[in-house]
Amino acid sequence: MFANSRPVTSRQDAPHPDLQAVLARHFAHPFQKPVSAYNHDAFAHAMRAWQAWNAHAPLILDAGCGVGWSTVRLARAHPDCFVMGVDQSAHRLARDKSELGTVPDNLVFIRANLVDFWRLLADAKHTGVTLFRHYWLYPNPWPKPAHLLRRWHAHPVFPTILQLGGELECRSNWKIYVDELADALRYAGEHPDVLPYDPKGEYLTPFERKYSESGQNLWVVRCSGIR
Ligand SMILES: C[S@@+](CC[C@H](N)C(=O)[O-])C[C@H]1O[C@@H](n2cnc3c(N)ncnc32)[C@H](O)[C@@H]1O
Fold first, then answer.
1. pLDDT category of residue 225 using cuts at 50, 70 and 90
2. Does the beta carbon of 76 sit less than 6 angstroms from any atom of ligand 1?
3. DSSP 3-state assignment of 78?
4. Separation CA 137–CA 158 (nearest Å)
5. Which of 57, 102, 116, 169 is a plausible cystine mate for 35, CB 3.0–4.6 Å?
6. Does residue 8 fall inside a structural domain?
7. What is the pLDDT of residue 91?
């Protein structure tokens, strides 16, 4: 069932030629779309869960966590941190997790739109909210050139994401996605590394497993200490 996934195809064979101009626009003009009520509620729920567990625990955001495998595994790997697994799909979040064993209590699953969730986190910065780590595990690649602005590093929310500080790790099966993200981080003055990624059979997410077992190449962007 897993090993039949095809690599991403695109008319793009290099980072998008408009990326720098798009970033210049986003960094010059704050993103002002109103935040929807359901995301306010979701954010309040996430904050309460964090505070109830330990408001001093460093925060990890598993952005686009899908069925939540990675959220559980990250929470286990970082028992001193609190992990928020955020996805817009209630269906994916609700997927049975019994195959993962006991779900640790230093996590919360939140159904929300990340575009609003990131902005609410940044708005809460004055209360001391920052991220210890951002994980973007196999974000939707949006490989059509016309869809550039849907990729997180070219979305108007990108400058807000960087305000949250911390370390960012993004994994993808599309090299151009990681190259563009690295270019966008460099544009913002950061120093990312792009490397091939071999999960060695230890899969953090179902997409990682599917792509790897289909023989696809995977890549990772790591950026420490976003300022
Ligand atoms: C390709 S899947 C990867 C899921 C998971 N990280 C994995 O590797 O198995 C991308 C996920 O991002 C979520 N997503 C996309 N756009 C989103 C948004 N604006 N807000 C929240 N989740 C979003 C989708 O619902 C989907 O679960």
1. confident
2. no
3. coil
4. 16
5. 116
6. no
7. 98
Tokens found for residue 65: 């966590």
Least-confidence region, from 4-8, 14-18, 65-69, 78-82? 4-8
Domains contained in the chain, number: 1
Q: Using most ligand atoms within 8 A of CB, pick from 31, 65, 205 the residue to mutate for ligand 1.
A: 65
Specify if 83 maps to a domain: yes
| Rounded distance from Cα 195 to ligand 1 centre (Å) | 22
Ligand 1 contact, 205 CB (< 6 A): yes
pLDDT in tens, 155-167: 999 999 999 999 9
Integer Cα distance of 124 and 48 in angstroms: 13
Do 118 and 41 touch, CB atoms closer than 8 A?
no
Residue type present at position 151: R
Read off the tokens for 76.
Answer: 């286990």
| pTM reported for the whole predicted model | 0.97
| Nearest-atom index, ligand 1, CA of 62 | 6
Domain assignment of residue 170, given as a range: 19-92+102-223
Element (H, E) at 167: strand 166-172
Radius of gyration of the CA atoms of the chain, in A: 17
Write the residue with the smallest CA distance to atom 27 of ligand 1. Answer: 66
**Ligand 1 atom at minimal distance to the Cα of residue 136:** 6
Q: Is residue 6 part of a domain?
A: no
Segment 102-154, tens digit of pLDDT: 999 999 999 999 999 999 999 999 998 999 999 999 999 999 999 999 999 99
